[in-house]
Design a protein that fits this description.
This protein is an alpha/beta fold. It folds into two domains: 246 residues, QueA-like (3-Layer(aba) Sandwich); 60 residues, Thrombin, subunit H. The chain is built from six helices and 17 strands. Strands 2-1-17-16-14-3-12-13-15 form a nine-stranded mixed beta sheet. A six-stranded antiparallel beta sheet has the order 5-6-7-10-9-8, with no helix packed on it. Helix 5 crosses helix 6.
């Protein structure tokens, strides 16, 4: 089990990065990894139910993505509104940051804003002359590897069909494949983790043990905690669900209802206590998400599987295909 950053790298042809969702959510391909046999199968997402037993439980993240992305009135600067500090002050992520130095001014929807502070991680605190609602006419915060502007299609497709609790800055993308019909045919429970930017920040330390995850808030309700405790096996839909359940199990002997927060960083070696199976999309090289799935399936199994996915022309990342790890 390696804890070296360089050991979680791979080369991906740019044309395999999915730029748009498939016409139908459920049409994704699904690579199946059987850990015990070290075998790979090539299936379809609509076949997911075939891999589940009657007492299994599918656990999903019901966070709802905030349309918190806006542009300056001249179109030159992109803003992602991260946190409201008071009525007129916001913490924002700015691209390109070099255009907004300390004291710089900008207009968004004719409201003037001034950069009050540049945080240590590059985020800007901006004070506006009057109140500004970033969610009104805001755009979906698509990840930077989607090299196009977000549009009306993204407003629905970069959101799961079961999204309910607003607060995320990125979608829990493994859940994007589900339709109401498919979800309705599976025993399932919901948790909430509001996906923040910390999940996607690059790991800069060559030693993984030195990387610090940002804290993210999560919720497990009483009814869902009870369902999770009673299940024979848990299928976590996405890495965010893994982080919620494994964090909760480290704080108690079993899953309990709670409002909590986690900065758990899962990388090899890691003892999983709550999750038995994982449905996930394909992740960026050198990312904390790739390290999590490597901890679950083994780096020596995951990286060859990714190589096979590239040979088989799977679609990668948020709008791409998925992987089921058994």
């Amino acid at each position: 089990m390696s804890t070296r950053l360089a050991d979680y790298d791979y080369d991906l042809p740019k044309e395999l990065i999915a730029q748009r969702p498939l016409p139908r959510r459920e049409d994704a391909r699904m690579m199946v990894l059987r850990r015990a046999q070290q075998k790979i199968e090539h299936r379809r997402f609509v076949e997911l139910k075939e891999f589940l037993l009657p007492d299994d439980l599918v656990v999903l993240n019901d966070t709802r993505v905030l349309a918190a992305r806006k542009f300056s009135d001249d179109g030159a600067i992109e803003f992602l509104f991260l946190e409201q500090l008071d009525a007129r002050r916001w913490k924002t992520l700015v691209r390109p940051g070099k255009k907004l130095r300390l004291g710089s001014t900008v207009r968004i929807e004719s409201v003037k804003g001034t950069v009050e502070e540049i945080c240590s991680d590059g985020e800007r605190i901006i004070a506006f002359e009057s109140e500004l609602d970033p969610l009104e006419h805001g755009l979906m915060p698509l990840p930077p590897y989607i090299s196009r502007a977000s549009d009306a299609e993204d407003a629905s497709r970069y959101q799961t069909v079961f999204a309910e609790t607003p607060g995320a800055l990125a979608a829990p993308t493994a859940g994007l494949h589900f339709t109401p019909a498919i979800l309705g045919a599976l025993p399932h429970a919901l948790v909430t983790l509001h996906v923040g930017l910390g999940t996607f920040r690059p790991v800069r330390s060559e030693n993984l043990a030195e990387h610090q995850m940002h804290e993210e808030r999560f919720i497990i309700s009483e009814v869902n905690a009870r369902a999770i405790k009673q299940a024979a096996r848990i299928l976590a839909v996405g890495t965010t669900v893994v982080r919620v359940l494994e964090s909760a199990r480290r704080d108690a002997d079993n899953i309990i209802a709670q409002h909590g927060a986690t900065d758990i960083f899962i990388y090899p070696p890691f003892e999983f206590r709550a999750v038995d199976m994982l449905l996930t999309n394909f992740h960026l090289p050198r990312s904390t998400l790739l390290m999590l799935v490597s901890a679950f399936a083994g780096r020596e199994f995951i990286l060859p599987a990714y190589a096979e996915a590239i040979r088989e022309r799977y679609r990668f990342y948020s709008y791409g295909d998925c992987m089921l790890i058994l």
